């Protein structure tokens, strides 16, 4: 029967078969939390990278698999993956799947939200020094955000 | 005479294995779960009062007994009709009877699907978990098994077409059987993919238990596919070499094999003591 033995390495305790899978990280989402679901996913994947539960090159489940397992919309998982890819925490290699980026651990330390806040503060300060009023800044900011082509 | 004796032996086996031995074992297992994991301690395991499950279990056992009796009546009729005659035992007899025997198991499967649907509806889990690792076919079955399954399928189709296609290829029995075999294997593939990537049917099931179940499903389906291919090869041989007298025997043997590879394997591979029933306790859902 060795011929038919799967190469898998799953399940730890009490398995009836011979397969053993190394312990994988489990993701937990709270559907009643005020934190958006995609943020919960991002935070946990980043946490997994930081504490080495998710190693560089480790493969992540497909969007569809994770969405089905968590019983959430595919788009939610896709959004989380897209943002993680933008931050170079994960990388998609075509049909081969999604993997943890080689520089994920370093990139986890980079908080794009914090960086954006800092940049905007610098610009606002410069504008204020030039004598631009807060309401003029707000109007200009609103125009830029509403019309991204300009 | 030898034909009917051979057929009787295998048909009695078909009756006892499918309609007596395993239904009894499955009935005992249902009773074990109901007794060992009562509704008061494991409320998430039940979607309706426990008495209803006990009543269903009794109905299931009685239904199988009735089907078993019908089997012996059929065997008696076969003896009367074929004893000391040249009549050939049609493969339709064990075939149609086999389908009847599978009915209670099908009903059990449908009941299980309905049960999981109701579980999902009643489930108030605010927290959902998922393993952060991809599931792939070869995590659960070996490439060798898949290779042999596909190889046997190809062999069955090629053999049948080569031996039995005749002048009109599209109306030949070989072509028809090949289409059926392909359709069955496509259905198996869909079931495999649905199990692998689809939604978790049981909302409370432990991930380790799910992996074990997936392995059983994959092994089951590939085994059944292999058995079906072998059976179709024997059918092709039977047509080619005019072995009509063996058809009833082979069909009965096929049903026993299919049953043992599906329900039998499932039963023997599932060790209830290793299943995590704690997930059905009330306190785990809170928080």
Question: Topology of this protein?
Answer:
The complex is a heterodimer of chains A (150) and B (287).
Chain A: E1 26-30, H1 37-50, E2 59-60, H2 63-70, H3 74-86, E3 90-92, E4 98-100, H4 104-108, H5 112-129, H6 134-146
Antiparallel strand pairs in A: 2-4, 3-4
Helix pairs in contact in A: 1-3, 2-3
Chain B: H1 2-36, H2 50-82, H3 92-122, E1 127-131, H4 143-164, H5 173-197, H6 207-240, H7 247-269
Helix pairs in contact in B: 1-2, 1-3, 1-7, 2-3, 3-7, 4-5, 4-6, 5-6, 6-7
Order of helices and strands of chain A: EHEHHEEHHH
Q: Which shape of chain B, going by the Cα principal axes?
A: flat
From the spread of the alpha carbons, the general shape of chain A counts as: elongated
Helix and strand pattern of chain B: HHHEHHHH
List the uncertain runs of chain A.
Answer: 1-22
Count of beta strands of chain B: 1
Radius of gyration of chain B, in angstroms, nearest whole number: 22 Å
Largest sheet of chain B: none
The secondary structure category of chain B is mainly alpha
Give the end-to-end Cα distance of chain B, rounded to a whole number of Å: 71 Å
Q: Level of helix content of chain A?
A: 40-55%
- The helix count of chain B comes to 7
Descriptive labels:
heterodimer, A: 150 residues, mainly alpha, three-stranded antiparallel beta sheet, 6 helices, 9% strand, elongated, disordered N terminus, B: 287 residues, 7 helices, 2% strand
Summarize the structure in words.
The complex is a heterodimer of chains A (150) and B (287). Chain A has 150 residues and is mainly alpha-helical. In chain A, 47% of the residues lie in helices and 9% in strands. A 3-stranded antiparallel β-sheet of chain A has the order 2-4-3. The longest helix of chain A has 18 residues. Chain B has 7 helices and 1 strand. The mean pLDDT of chain B is 88. Classes of the chains: A mainly alpha (150), B mainly alpha (287). Chains A and B meet through strand 1, strand 2 and helix 2 of A and strand 1, helix 4 and helix 6 of B. Strand 1 of chain A pairs antiparallel with strand 1 of chain B, so a sheet runs across the interface.
């Amino acid at each position: 029967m060795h011929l038919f033995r799967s190469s898998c390495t799953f399940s730890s305790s009490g398995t009836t078969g011979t397969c053993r899978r190394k312990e994988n990280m489990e993701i937990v989402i709270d559907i009643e939390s005020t934190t958006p679901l995609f943020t919960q996913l991002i935070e946990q994947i980043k946490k997994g990278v930081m504490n080495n539960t998710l190693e560089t090159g480790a493969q992540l489940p497909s969007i569809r698999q994770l969405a089905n397992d968590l019983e959430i919309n595919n788009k939610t998982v896709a959004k989380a993956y897209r943002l993680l890819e933008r931050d170079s925490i994960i990388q998609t290699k075509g049909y081969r799947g999604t993997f943890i980026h080689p520089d994920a651990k370093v990139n986890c330390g980079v908080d794009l939200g914090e960086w954006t806040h800092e940049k905007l503060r610098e610009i606002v300060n410069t504008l204020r020094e030039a004598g631009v009023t807060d309401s003029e800044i707000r109007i200009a900011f609103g125009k830029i955000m509403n019309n991204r082509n300009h | 005479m030898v034909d009917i004796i051979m057929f009787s032996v295998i048909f009695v086996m078909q009756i006892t294995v499918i309609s007596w031995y395993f239904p009894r074992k499955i009935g005992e297992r249902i009773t074990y779960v109901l007794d060992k994991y009562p509704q008061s301690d494991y409320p998430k395991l039940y979607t309706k009062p426990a008495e209803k499950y006990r009543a269903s279990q009794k109905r299931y056992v009685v239904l199988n007994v009735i089907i078993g009796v019908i089997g012996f009546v059929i065997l008696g009729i076969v003896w009367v009709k074929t004893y000391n005659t040249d009549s050939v035992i049609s493969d339709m007899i064990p075939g149609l009877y086999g389908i009847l025997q599978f009915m209670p198991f099908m009903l059990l499967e449908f009941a299980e699907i309905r049960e999981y649907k109701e579980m999902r509806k009643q489930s108030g889990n605010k927290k959902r978990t998922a393993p952060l690792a991809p599931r792939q076919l070869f995590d659960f079955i070996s490439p060798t098994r898949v290779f042999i399954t596909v190889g046997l399928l190809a062999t069955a189709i090629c053999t049948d077409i080569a031996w039995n296609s005749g002048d009109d290829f599209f109306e030949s029995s070989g072509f028809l059987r090949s289409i059926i075999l392909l359709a069955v294997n496509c259905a198996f593939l869909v079931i495999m993919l649905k199990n692998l990537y689809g939604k978790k049917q049981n909302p409370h099931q432990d991930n380790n238990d799910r992996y074990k179940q997936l392995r059983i499903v994959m092994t089951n389906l590939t085994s059944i596919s292999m058995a079906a291919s072998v059976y179709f090869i024997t059918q092709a041989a039977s047509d080619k070499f005019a072995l009509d007298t063996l058809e009833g025997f082979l069909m009965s043997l096929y049903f026993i094999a299919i049953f043992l590879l599906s329900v039998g394997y499932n039963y023997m591979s599932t060790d209830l003591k290793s299943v995590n029933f704690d997930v059905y306790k009330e306190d785990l859902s809170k928080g």
